[in-house]
Amino acid sequence: MRYALTYRLKLLIMKKYFLFIFLLPAVLQAQEILTLENAVGTALEKSYDIKVAQMQQEASELQVFKGNAGMLPRVDLNANVGSAFNGVSQKLSNGSEINRFGTSLAPTSNVAMAWTLYDGKRMYATLDRLKGQGQLSQLQTRQMMENTVVNVMQAYYEVMRQKQTVAFLQTIIKYYEERLTITQQRWEFGKGSKLDYLQSKTELNTQNTQLVQAKNSLKNAKVTLNNLLVRPADQDFDVQEVVGIMFDPTTEQLKSQARAANKSLQALRKSTDISLITQREVAAAKLPRVTLNSSFGYSLSKTNAGLFLYNQNIGLNVGLGATWNIFNGEIVRRQIQTSKINTDILRKQEEDLWIQIESDLMRAYNQYQTDKELLKLEEENNEVAEENLKISLEKFKLGGSTILELNEAQRSLNTSLNRLTNARYNIKISELQIMRLSGELVK
């Protein structure tokens, strides 16, 4: 008895073991479920465009320091060694004469400092401009992130749409297969015409052709999304349905949010600020410039011919210098005028951009509201079309309707499902457009 129990136990363990080995490949090949959040996160992490934008931002921010604005002193170490070979011929007032061929050595070195103490506050304006350029680079990085998010979400929604298209075609095909079975049985038993059977087979083949094309479109949509996520093009995955209305603001909320957070508008405003700072930089050239100059040096001169055979100097020099340009051909005045014109251009561009954003926002909002109404109608139409097809199919089975009536009911459901799929896709795209224009997409 004990031996039998042990044998049964081993047999049960072996069965579970072989079952596990058999199912292991299926487990390992389980399809990845890619959520929208994971897709966006992966793209933001791996996108080459974003990485380049971030490196450009880092390079711009590295330029923001006081030394680059001229606010710190400049210190140079200078050194020089000179040597000469010459013939000396001298006749002095006391009657003595010197005639010889001599050599001389003259090494010099010094540490020199130049520090601008005042330049009409140009250096402060330069530092502000560098900071502004760093901030503009940050905004440009956010714009690149926003564009990436938009592209990823659009690609994700396209995969959703193609997946739904495949699903509704598979649903439709079941009805066509049932219709084919009914017409075939009627024809074989002599209760129906072969024409109905052939027509049903043709309609089924047409739907199967559309299904093959839809599956190919789904594969290509996945390739596009994989490309945006910097993944192998053939990596398979499944998407998670994104349903429901996530974003439903008023028009006033949208306008207020867009004025404050639209990335393109923010970037143009920052460019205007930088242009105003540039005016301050240019205008500073009309004011005097004061510098502090200092040097600590050593020099030596040695020769075996001449009046001084050995001369050595060590000393510290300190001095203030001031310059004030009085006239330079009106270059500064023209530069100031040009800078003001550039600022006015940017302000006009900002006003024009806001009008464009406001118009795009209102159109997107109107489309969004329309898409919501259409989605509701298409959901109702789909329920009616599906119920109508079921009733028509039952009547056809019982001989209470013709194949033309059934065919019309099938096409109505097909059209309804196609419109419903597009309505679900359109409302997500409209929502995405509103979020992008209002600056809600990337904060």
Word description of this protein:
InterPro entries: OMP_efflux (IPR003423), TolC-like (IPR051906). Helix content is 65%, strand content 17%. With 443 residues, the chain is of the alpha+beta class. The chain has a 4-stranded antiparallel β-sheet, with no helix packed on it. A two-stranded parallel sheet has the order 1-4. A hairpin with a 6-residue loop joins strand 5 and strand 6. It is elongated and about 150 Å long. 24% of the residues are buried. The N terminus is likely disordered.
Spatial order of the strands forming the largest sheet: 2-3-5-6
Query: Termini separation (Å)?
Result: 73 Å
Give me the number of helical elements: 9
Counting DSSP E segments of at least 2 residues, the number of strands comes to: 6
Q: Using the CA coordinates, give the radius of gyration.
A: 42 Å
Shape estimate: elongated
User: Would you tell me the overall average pLDDT?
Assistant: 87
Structural category: alpha+beta
Low-confidence stretches: 1-29
Percent of residues in helical segments? 55-70%
Helix and strand run: HEHHEEHHEHHEEHH
